[in-house]
Amino acid sequence: MKSRQRASNAIIMILLFGLAVLFLAPIFIVLMNSFKGRLYISDAPFKLPTKETFAGIENYIEGMKKTKFASAFGWSFLITVGSVLLIILFTAMTAWYITRVKTKLTNGLYYLFVFSMIVPFQMVMFTMTKVANIIHFDNPIGIMLIYLGFGSGLSVFMFCGFVKSIPLEIEEASIIDGCNPVQTYFRVVLPMLKPIVITVAILNVMWIWNDYLLPYLVIGRDYKTIPIAIQYLKGGYGSIDMGAMMAMLVLAIIPIVLFYLSCQKYIIKGVTAGAVKG
Predict the structure, then answer these.
(1) Side-chain half-sphere of 146: how many Cα atoms within 13 Å?
(2) Are 271 and 155 in contact (CB under 8 A)?
(3) For residue 57, which of 28, 195, 216, 276 sits 20 to 30 Å off, Cα-Cα?
(4) What's the pLDDT tens digit per position in 23-40?
(5) DSSP state at residue 9
(6) Helices marked H in 117-225
(7) pTM score of the predicted model
(8) Domain 58-274 has CATH 1.10.3720.10
(9) In this structure, how many other beta carbons lie within 10 angstroms of the beta carbon of residue 154?
């Protein structure tokens, strides 16, 4: 039995290692090609840099100049942080109210949020863009509110699952001690939501930071985020500065990877805790 278990564990480890290599290979290829001269990337994309093909940090310098990377990074950072803060603040309160106040209205709201998760963005993007232009949401503040709308479905769903796992007696005890509903939420409930808050933050940061289509449609050239700035490396007649593009992709990946690695332990904890009670 022990030998069979060891063999099965070895097979599982080999499979997991293979999957890890499969997922990490594209990142490694991008990183490797970011140090090659742009003329050599298309000819030998899977070969390591040599003395002839190695370009040092030239691609990074050129890419930062062409894309105005500092400005793009600033807009991406502002929009991502602002949107995620809005999503967490409003959807957590909404989920707490929906879960604790059982009425036909709250049940209807809950199912509306769940339904919004299955509506493809492509179904509403043209009308959404037109409305955003009419009401002057075509700016960084406006797009934060749009992200709040698109991100509320999944966030409310996850927060509702977690709030159900919080004993109601804790909130009742705070009310007996003299707290009003607002004080109960911010002093008692919100600190207990920390695992799922971090989980929701990670998922939304990864989505908003890497999003290309919504910023392109709403704010376009006026406030270029990193994905939009990288796209503008593509020149006329299909010409692309592959060296600069690879370098900028690496710089775009680094912040989100570091953020994910620093917070990944909370993802499973938040999801499993929210699944304790249905």
Answers:
(1) 28
(2) no
(3) 216
(4) 888 888 888 888 888 777
(5) H
(6) 121-134, 140-163, 168-176, 181-184, 190-192, 194-210, 213-218
(7) 0.84
(8) yes
(9) 19
